[in-house]
Write a structure and sequence with these properties.
By secondary structure, the chain is an alpha/beta fold. It contains nine helices and eleven strands. It has helices at 20-28, 48-58, 73-83, 102-113, 144-149, 162-165, 177-185, 213-226, 234-252, and strands at 7-13, 35-41, 62-66, 88-91, 97-98, 117-125, 131-136, 141-142, 159-161, 191-202, 254-256. Helix 8 (213-226) crosses helix 9. The chain starts with 6 loop residues before the first strand and ends with a strand.
């Protein structure tokens, strides 16, 4: 399993000193050791730089890049993707966690089924690391139409084959920039679900999921406009479609554990 190629882990960060050590440790604990973790710091003002530098000194697989200007997560992800050298691209935000077998399971799943784009189930934790009693999943097979209906994959669950997909770069939108990436990738290949719970999303105060529906609508409209869908009212129709499928997701794909 160790010779299936390097996994480049894309980790933007901004003022996550309270969480980033645990995030890095969850990567270092992976049973699949052939990875590089590209952490792009968007001008943090807390202890993030000190913490990441200590890890980077001891493990050459951790690459630390500091931006000169605070530019947002989309720019940080673009920079990390440009610096990635791996066959596989995975995403892990600087306050989220993986289970130790995440990379090994997902690479096996993709190779065995000849998939280039996949995601998996995950659970939620709160700011102090307590697990919330739910498991979040999604459709087994997502087509281009399905991905435009809703952002099914959690960012921390996605992996794609860079050799097949190529370099992905997105417009520097403030919110939904992970969704913008999935909409680019889905143009090239379908996405498939691995039915394993391999990650923990940290739900914090101020996250997008805690904002009002008015804000969510505005950010979705801006997203669809940013990818060129700005005719015939498409941004508004797609946004309404997303709200509808978001409601159904809670009924169908969020389960108590």
């Amino acid at each position: 399993m160790n010779d299936c190629g390097i996994v480049s882990i894309i980790t933007p960060t901004y003022n996550c000193g309270a969480f980033i050590a645990d995030t890095i440790l969850s990567v270092k604990a992976q049973t699949y050791p052939n990875w590089e973790m590209i952490i792009v710091d968007d001008c943090s003002t807390d202890s993030t730089k000190l913490i990441v530098n200590e890890f980077a000194k001891k493990d050459s697989r951790i690459k630390y890049i500091c931006l000169d200007i605070n530019s947002g997560a989309a720019v940080a992800r673009n920079v990390a993707l440009k610096n990635a050298t791996g066959k596989w691209i995975a995403f892990l935000d600087s306050d989220d966690l993986w289970t130790p077998d995440k990379l090994q399971k997902q690479i096996c799943f993709m190779i065995e089924n000849n998939y280039s784009f996949s995601y998996h189930d995950y659970s939620e934790i709160n700011e102090i690391g307590e697990t919330k009693p739910c498991r979040i999943s999604g459709p087994k097979h997502i087509t281009k139409f399905g991905m435009f209906c809703y952002c099914w994959p959690g960012c921390l669950t996605v992996m794609y084959n860079r050799q097949e997909i190529g370099l992905i770069q997105i417009n520097p939108i403030k919110k939904n920039n992970d969704y913008a990436m999935w909409l680019e990738i889905i143009r090239k290949t379908d996405c498939f679900l691995m039915k394993d719970n391999c990650a923990f999303y940290r739900k914090r105060g101020g996250s997008i999921s805690n904002h009002s529906y008015t804000s969510l609508i505005k950010w979705h409209v801006r997203l669809f406009k940013s990818i060129g869908l700005n005719r015939f009212g498409l941004p508004y129709l797609l946004t309404l479609n997303n709200l509808f499928w978001g409601f159904l997701k809670k009924l169908i794909y969020v389960r108590s554990i």
